[in-house]
Amino acid sequence: MKANSQMPDDAKLRVLLRESRPEPEPSPGFQNAVWRRIERAETPAVSLPAANWLDRIADWFLRPHRAFATAAAILVLGLLLGIAQGAGHARDLSKQRYLDSVSPPALRQ
Amino acid sequence: MRRSLLILLAMLLAGAAIAGSSYLLARRVCARQVAASGDDLAWLRREFHLSDAEMQRIRQLHEGYLPKCHENCARIAAKKKELQAVLDSAQNMTPEAQQKLAEVAALRAQCQANMLGHFYEVSRAMPPEQGRRYLAEMQRLTLGFHEQIENTMSGDTSSPHGHH
After folding, report:
1. % of residues, chain A, pLDDT over 90
2. What ipTM is given for this predicted complex?
3. Whether A47 and B8 lie within 8 Å, measured CB to CB
4. CB contact under 8 A, B27 and A104
5. Can you tell me the distance from the alpha carbon of B100 to that of A60, in angstroms, rounded to the nearest whole number?
6. Geometric angle at alpha carbon B151, from B146 and B153, rounded to 5°
7. What is the pLDDT of residues B32-66, one digit of tens each?
8. CA distance A102 to B62
9. Tell me, what's the pLDDT at B52?
10. Does B50 touch chain A (CB under 8 A)?
């Protein structure tokens, strides 16, 4: 009962409060400015092409299976190059060995 | 961007480390295997595609030649010592020093003649085409040094390097 009797007073009070704080009129072009800000916020950040490129490469390599595959490929490549180079070096060594046995360096100088 | 750049740099360094270490490891293992083989004639077999029978014949020739070669080398070394002693005691070119020089040269020539004789024998133990290739290669390797010096000293431009 008490609550119902207070309701008209509350409504009056709200009206009084609203009237005591007059809302200012928005400046001309306010709405347009708000929409521009909203559009700017929704547009993805413009980045430099180089940065974009680096990010994409880094993202590509950061997948574990790709990182392992790349490391394995580099390892195999290094081994193959080492074997090829080592075989050439070994051939030179064995050739020099034969040459030294049949024609001592002192004789060739 | 900065984070991506650091990641890529780290990956490049890791890649270079993996490639470098695997390359050096493989190279060293290959070279060590050859050094461990201990056979002076291993190059001949591989380079000239020789059969076991050909290798056996060449090994006999090689083992027969080595004592003669060592003996010649010892004689040359002794004669060079004599020459050095004469040169050390004289201030000018003396007839004795000239004589020693001629003796060293004669011993070297004899040694080279023996060596070339051995190369001819070895080349005959190979298939004809391989034998020719072996002979040309050995002459180039053992006599080419003197030729190079003589050409340089005489200013001979008949070599391909003389034409531009």
Report:
1. 10
2. 0.71
3. no
4. no
5. 76
6. 95
7. 777 777 788 988 998 999 999 999 999 999 999 99
8. 8
9. 93
10. no
